[in-house]
Amino acid sequence: MARPGTRNEGTSKATRPRAAGATTRRGARPRLAKAGKHVYFFGGGKADGDRTMRDLLGGKGAGLAEMTRAGLPVPPGFTISTDVCALFYAQGGRVPDAVEREMAAGLERLEKLAGARLGASDGPLLLSVRSGAKFSMPGMMDTILNLGLNDETVEGLKARTGNGRFAYDSYRRFLQMFGSVVLQVPKDAFDQKFESVKRLRGARLDTDLDEQALRDVVVEYQHVVRQHTDREFPQDPREQLRMARDAVFSSWNNPRAIEYRRIYEIPDDIGTAVNVQTMVFGNTGERSATGVGFTRNPATGAKEFYGEFLVNAQGEDVVAGIRTPQPIRELERLMPEAYAQLREYTSTLERHYQDVQDFEFTIEDGRLYMLQTRSGKRTGYAAVVIATDLVDEGVVEPRQALLLVEPASLSQLLAPVFDPAAWKAVAVATRGLPASPGAACGQAVFSADEAVRWSEHGKRVVLVRKETAPDDIHGMYVAEGILTATGGMTSHAAVVGRQMGKPAVVGAGGLSIDEAGRTLRIGDQTIGEGDWLSFDGLSGEVKIARIATRPSEILQVLAGEMRPESSDIHRRFTRLLEWADRERRLEIRANADLPDQAALAYAFGARGIGLCRTEHMFFGEDRLPIVQRMILSQREADRRQALAELLPLQREDFYGVFKAMHGCPVTIRTIDPPLHEFLPKREEVMVDIARLEAAGKTGRELEEKLALLRRVEQLHEFNPMLGHRGVRVGITFPEITEMQARAIFEAACRLAREGQAVVPEIMIPLVSDVRELRDQKAIVDRVAAEVTKAHGVEIPYLVGTMIEVPRGALTADSIAREARFFSFGTNDMTQLAFGFSRDDIGKFLPAYRQKKILERDPFASLDVEGVGELVRIAVEKGRRARPDLALGVCGEHGGDPSSIHFFEEVGLDYVSASPYRVPVARLAAAQAALKTRVGD
Amino acid sequence: MARPGTRNEGTSKATRPRAAGATTRRGARPRLAKAGKHVYFFGGGKADGDRTMRDLLGGKGAGLAEMTRAGLPVPPGFTISTDVCALFYAQGGRVPDAVEREMAAGLERLEKLAGARLGASDGPLLLSVRSGAKFSMPGMMDTILNLGLNDETVEGLKARTGNGRFAYDSYRRFLQMFGSVVLQVPKDAFDQKFESVKRLRGARLDTDLDEQALRDVVVEYQHVVRQHTDREFPQDPREQLRMARDAVFSSWNNPRAIEYRRIYEIPDDIGTAVNVQTMVFGNTGERSATGVGFTRNPATGAKEFYGEFLVNAQGEDVVAGIRTPQPIRELERLMPEAYAQLREYTSTLERHYQDVQDFEFTIEDGRLYMLQTRSGKRTGYAAVVIATDLVDEGVVEPRQALLLVEPASLSQLLAPVFDPAAWKAVAVATRGLPASPGAACGQAVFSADEAVRWSEHGKRVVLVRKETAPDDIHGMYVAEGILTATGGMTSHAAVVGRQMGKPAVVGAGGLSIDEAGRTLRIGDQTIGEGDWLSFDGLSGEVKIARIATRPSEILQVLAGEMRPESSDIHRRFTRLLEWADRERRLEIRANADLPDQAALAYAFGARGIGLCRTEHMFFGEDRLPIVQRMILSQREADRRQALAELLPLQREDFYGVFKAMHGCPVTIRTIDPPLHEFLPKREEVMVDIARLEAAGKTGRELEEKLALLRRVEQLHEFNPMLGHRGVRVGITFPEITEMQARAIFEAACRLAREGQAVVPEIMIPLVSDVRELRDQKAIVDRVAAEVTKAHGVEIPYLVGTMIEVPRGALTADSIAREARFFSFGTNDMTQLAFGFSRDDIGKFLPAYRQKKILERDPFASLDVEGVGELVRIAVEKGRRARPDLALGVCGEHGGDPSSIHFFEEVGLDYVSASPYRVPVARLAAAQAALKTRVGD
Fold this sequence. Notes:
Protein name (chains A, B): Pyruvate, phosphate dikinase
Strand order of the largest sheet of chain A: 13-23-22-15-16-17-18-14
Oligomer: homodimer
Catalytic activity (chains A, B): pyruvate + phosphate + ATP = phosphoenolpyruvate + AMP + diphosphate + H(+)
Structural class of chain A: alpha/beta
CATH superfamily of the largest domain in chain A: Phosphoenolpyruvate-binding domains
Region (Disordered) (chains A, B): 1-29
Cofactor (chains A, B): Mg(2+)
Shape of chain A: elongated
CATH class of the largest domain in chain A: Alpha Beta
Radius of gyration of chain A: 32 Å
GO molecular function (chains A, B): ATP binding; kinase activity; metal ion binding; pyruvate, phosphate dikinase activity
């Protein structure tokens, strides 16, 4: 069994085979930008840039350079680098003169290579000007095609091609794009004119218009521009080029691009490149076409050529839906030669890039040009299929395949899914935060007790609550999914939902819930108890309907309901994660409180429990009354009596958890929540009393309520998160710690006698000073000695602490002298570092996101700058004081891929994630190890 | 006007004269302990130690060494150093052999010098064995006198002195002390025997017993020892010495010593020394005596010889109260020669130590011996009188005088006082935390409104509440004092009490308050509205009575009710603080929200406002309804309308505050509390609704309550301290920041036109990320430009931030790029660093104090290790990013002397304290500067 404390010694990991020198992907180390160089040429089989330069050239620019180098037919051009975008904004929307000069030189070189000049009246050079950031932002930024046309050059184009219709079609497209994008003329104004010309001519399709009709369109368009801008359409092609370039840079900050970056967490400061490229034309006639495709099916991963195209069209026509494109297979029939070339080129690209490619092409008079290639986006399911196939085909090695799957997307393979057609058929009623993936469909209930009652009658229910609390657990457990009106991505409903693998949509502000009245309003629709609801935990969409779902195959296999051999995806999933296990350095543990959760975590590959929350064991139906009796006791003796009743129950839980983990380490946290969480809410008791008094009731019922209120008042806290909880409970009620330690060691002794090794790790929460830990450790040590002596068994164990309070991190050196391990509680640490209550953050988080004050929810993805600094301080101070200190993380961030990357860098020993996130963590840890090694 | 931003440049401070080389007090640099040396001899005019070695020798040991060196008649002996105490405990209650050997050598030297041997049957050497820690802990640890006596040596003593009564009196004393202290025989057992012998002999006083009677006592005492210990009294003097020494070391950890250290915040690990000294005898007859005294009156500071003595007695008789001692003046009559010597020696000691001395002496057969000298404890009043007198007498320089006054004790000079005799006459009913010094006496009221009503009828009231809240301010303002059942030293009642200079006793757990029923129970007494209560904010004692008070003279002078010339103490107080101003480096500002507070702060010597809390301006009667209307508005336009009504009111406040500060900097904090603080409490509204519903009421009243509840529910927070407050309010409601900025700049413009310079410093609270500050700064800058343009006036201003959130400290470098100043909000920082809510800490703080997990309340005295680390990080990162960053502190710690010492060390520019703490801060800052310079 690998112990976290032995990371520097020989462990199971150290014996793993590792291919020598195989730590970097071929050519993956990026080339450096050349100082002062901003314009990167490509053409004639040579390119200044290459695929590694996505930071500088954007995805499109790097792809064009790479394809040019590989000898593929790419129209020549140059890329203006992303750092010019920053300069452009820094200078108030102006490109520096040095860049203007570089660009002029690039243009000259392009004219030479193309044998045509921009603005030449005989056979002019025409250009496309397109955006291209490091990360694909499809359709968000602007593009100009056919640049260089004016009243004179259009005639030159006609003369050169002998195709007047083509020339004027290109000109009217240019006028429209330039007019709307650069000159800000409403697109509508052009569309109206175009439609009126089509009407006049009785044309159905754009292609039905002849040269004369298109000439009329050009005249009308120029009129539109004059009307809206009070000036003539710019006729100077060099001025057109400068204006188009600046418009592309400006489009980086258009509202839809900003919103897109917010959603996909793309940094705002990386900027876009501008690609200036010689035009090729898919609209010269029936031997021309334009299209897009994937080398494999991005939805299923199947190895099939996938895409669509349009004959006699330009690029944007395909996506704009003006005409319905044809499936790409039909290209083979229409243009067999070009099709064969395309298959060959794209297969080459897939092998070259060692990944599925998403490409764009144009065929001009039968000649194929490649216009873009990039890694194709895919579903989680497809990602796993593709990664394993590429290994089997010998295209990539397993460690490369690991980098082809987005860790978070693995959750998709575990969640039940809606039948896609049935889902599409119903409209979205409202949206919330997609807190826990999966499809939930059931009858609405509004309390945990109702959920249990309905489910006992064999009903499928979804639990709808304003928010959930620990005493809703039993209802959450039986529900198909959880839907709440308030709370964020780490609210109780979200955390428990993910831990249980239940779909959850939380913080759906559009819900107006009357829990007492058992109704829910969404807009003007009212949903009562028993009405059907469906929601998708991956999209956050909520629908008022019963929509069919099906369980994930992988879970069916894990549950023994399906044989492993009959599930292709289970086999692939397992292989991929085994590869991941070979590469990762971080150990993976799970947060699991009960034996069934522990067993599931083990099945998912967790080799240890990083967080077993003992208080969840207190909420069982058979336990809560005893717990309440303990809390209401005024005397220690009464408390001890109640604790004595809890002891065997908790011992049984620990026994089950230990057993389920087959000898792997189990970290048990002593009691953490404030005691009032186990009692009814203060305002509820107050209202009850007010009702009794108003009804003139006196006597025993009122007396009891008043007594309860007194105790609840005593325990009431203004800020429970900062109150009497964590180690503070153990210090004021040492008998609770004592009972818990006893239950742990008695369970361990029983297992030891049964021949199973157990190493309990006892974790004291919320420590801010070493003396708190010392106090609790003394109790644990004493009980351990008593129990092991009584049983005549030696139980090795560790006592450690959570580091979750800033002061704990800041004084980690003194704490490490008492603690054998630290487990970072990054949830609480985030709350305390920011001073944000995660239950209250909903009030201002939307404004913070909208104003770009917070780019990401720090409860979902670790704040590396602030919270991460505390982690770094604690790691450094802790290891200095105790070199063999074991370090892990058990906050929600333990299952978040980008946070895992940070934990790898900072050198933790393990991460602990909720069971359903264990596969995600295994893969993310492998990627972090690979990337960190590359970055060394 | 000195600006905090210019600390490294020439400021008003830099021009102050400073005597060259005068940074250390004579001989104040401590000598170092010699490695391996543990026993320090003194005698024959020479001593191994001296006054600087209090750490090692304890106060008594250092004093004995110093007096010996000064040639005073000190019985010779040796001191076993404090580090042996640590060794003693580390070795399980054993002194290391090396120390035993050193001690034996010391004893041999002592025997030589004394010309007598321990245990010699003819004229034996007798010893005293006494404790002595660095800090005086009177009566807490153990003492043995007359050691060396046994059945044989007592006869030798008789033979040598020819005084059998004396010899047996000494022996019975030794048996009793050794028996009870070392052998743990109950003291009672000896007392009973002694009384029975006295009864038998018909003796009234101890001195009435003759030799034979005392011989009987000795026999009886030995019998008592045999009975209780099952062994004979140890007859070997060397064994007696070892046992006595170990008993003294053990007494360091007796319960009363531990409790004493807890109360007086003396560290547990410094240990005690043991002083072994040749006995001299005050009990040899009528020409012998023993006594204690002070060189000046420690209560009033008057220059008068002060003390008491007993003839024919040993030391402990004076304090034990067996006989009533005589005033020391009478010694002049009885033993004029010894008295003259004593006056001379103690005067010498006062000049030598440059401070009032508290001394012990014994006269043996007319010969004076000095047994102890140390600085005398004194009241705040006496401290000021003595310090100024010593300067006038040329004994000390002003900068030395500053070190003779405990800064916190200055508060005593400002608080109203009870008539001492009247106070003593009434029993203490209960106790609470002494939160704000002063004597409060008034009729009990249980709500702020009642307080106002009663005071309008000319009644003096004390406000009794479970706890206070911002909406109690008006009641607190009119009350004589504030008494609460819950809350700690920085609870609302405590903070406001100090700020208002109102006596406050808080967290008095013995109070059982029924606010609705307007009664208070203490034990079995019930106090109703209008009953008289008195309490003392300096001791925390509460009494059920009307007890006369009188206001402090200094406040009478400040209020213009007394002419400065007629107040001696005001003149001294002012002089002392002027000396302090010459020495301190830290600027002193005040926390003041309203013009009258600002004026008071200025009178107390604050030269700037470090924290003007704008929300306190919202709680006025004329304002709260407008504020509530703003909060209940759903639309921005309605909010703006309400804010427009608040604008002139707030502008008037700022105008008044600016004016009161005469051009000194004024730091104004934008809105900080969560908005729900301005609305009724959620549970109150819920109870109202329950009552209305139960009464069958419908209609408008219920509707309005329900609407109010909805908004209150929306604003309700689980953890308000971590919720929607501080900069978060300004970000979500930018119109509030805008109004506040407008009020500030309009007020500044008005003053500027009137010819007064104003430099507003606008402070954004609770910043955790630079982008929050940037957002609010943009609003302030825009409004500043608008207002100053409209008024045609230039207003210099600074925008800065509070550093109170850990993440703010951790990212101080990026924040400093936007902030001109940081003001440390150490209250919130303490809450967040520990994860302690100061409102909830009462639930576990007692256990933490008792278990020694926390030695001090971190809200009263800055936690240097953890919170201080955040301050250091922020100072370092902030100054690195902006070298001229101004740094201050505005948390409660700004008025705490030990915290001020830390702020001096860490290099802040200013501290800001509540007005009544400004004098304390001035003095503490001077001491910190002096001590830091010494420590350089």
